[in-house]
Amino acid sequence: MIIVGAGPTGLMLAAELRLAGVRPLVLERQPQPRDTPKAGGLGGQILQLLRYRGLLERFEAACTGPVPAPRFPFGGVHLDFTQLPDPPMHALPLPQQLLERLLGERAGELGVDLRRGHEVTGVSQDDDAVTVDVRGPDGPYRTSTRYLVGCDGARSRIRDWAGIPFPGTTYPEVNRLAQVTLPDTVTVLGNGDLDVPGFGAIRAGFTRTDHGLLGVGSSPGARSVSLYTIEDETTEYDDDVPMTLAELQDSVHRVLGAHLPLAGSTRLSRFTFKARQAERYREGRILIAGDAAHLFPATGVALNAGMLDAVNLAWKLAADLRGTAPAGLLDTYHAERHMAGARTLLHTRAQVALRRGHDAAAEALREVFTELLADEQPLRRMGALVAGTDIRYPMPGTRLHPLAGTFAPDLTLHTDRGITSVAELMHPARPVLLDLAGRPELRQTASDWRPLVDVHTAKTDDRPADALLIRPDGHVAWAAALDEPADSATPPLREALSAWFGTP
């Protein structure tokens, strides 16, 4: 089993495969981890998944600053969850270089074979295997594997060699994002605005001009602020060439028409926006995930989507490699994650429409959208959409419980061994049947699937169902309604166990 690419998606996939008992080989063409700043944080559903693996506290401890208030940009306006006691969206200030280091450490602890400086130069496949040509530090070599997963980014050669189309749109925007320090000559006012000598106030939030957009995020009295510019340009930039502070200042000057003094920076990144999605995530024995499978024209969602691809794929690949996968299990990776990617593409394309318009009609659209977000229900709906927590995978069967296909709620569980939770039960990344109502007939049905499925009995306050069958990726495969009769609950449970974990 070979993974190409040691970015967040590839490293997450490798760790998940190790939890499932598979020993993947990770090939990364770069000899050392890259220092080029890319994503500046992690947010959305993946944070809950990390908690379900027992990793969230470790990631939180590594954050480079305080966890920001739950307020997120959306197409030139903001989703402001600060007044909600339980925001639907959270984020961690965790630069991608640090994220990759943490994921690499986790993969190393689990025994993943990661080879840096090994560039894949060719791939071919037949019905039985994938043949991989590699150029390593000691010269070229050839190896083969039952499956290969391309986690090699937007310009994925694995995707191209597999012949997977990658249609979509490239926008003429150049985005520059930075965390900078201000000299003493610039004053941060009490409302977060910047007072610039010779110019006046630059207001916090977004400022639109005829030449682009400037975003400012600051706290009163702080000397470090975030800056964000968007311009339409025809220049093609090499993603591996870092942005400089002078380049950022030039961009601010073009957008604003004024010079903004800057003393230094702790983060500088530049990126362009594309809206693309692979037509299929699998071609024979070659699969793709992360940026190789989808590109979104907005910030803050790509890591979430890519790492969730990895978690969805890992347990299915492992079952196939073990020989326990039911027919068609691996194909559900494309069905489920392509749907999730399309959902993310939907809201990020909507952000393009919101932010790119500069006429009176576009301003009216943003104003109406902002008014809608003043109400709690649409605000929560948008938060779930951006976080990816509104995804409900299609499940086999009829008369499905409302929880079927959704991410399992983290219930507090009272057992004979003490208090635990759904999150703690999911640390080993194994399927779980959770009996919440003392249903021995359901436990007996699941016993035919031991040792593939862990069975637990517990009680919980405000139980949402009599029983939950939870997949390793945290999604509910089946649930029994409250007080559902045995003759009604048992056959669908057996059907779900067979559909996801094979015939016992």
Automatic annotation (TrEMBL):
Keywords: FAD, Flavoprotein. InterPro entries: FAD-bd, FAD/NAD-bd_sf, RIFMO-like. Its cofactor is FAD. Residues 2-344 form the FAD-binding domain. Transmembrane segments: none annotated. GO terms for molecular function: FAD binding; oxidoreductase activity, acting on paired donors, with incorporation or reduction of molecular oxygen, NAD(P)H as one donor, and incorporation of one atom of oxygen. It comes from the Bacteria. PANTHER family: BINDING MONOOXYGENASE, PUTATIVE (JCVI)-RELATED, TRK SYSTEM POTASSIUM UPTAKE PROTEIN. This is 2-polyprenyl-6-methoxyphenol hydroxylase-like FAD-dependent oxidoreductase. It comes from Nonomuraea rubra.
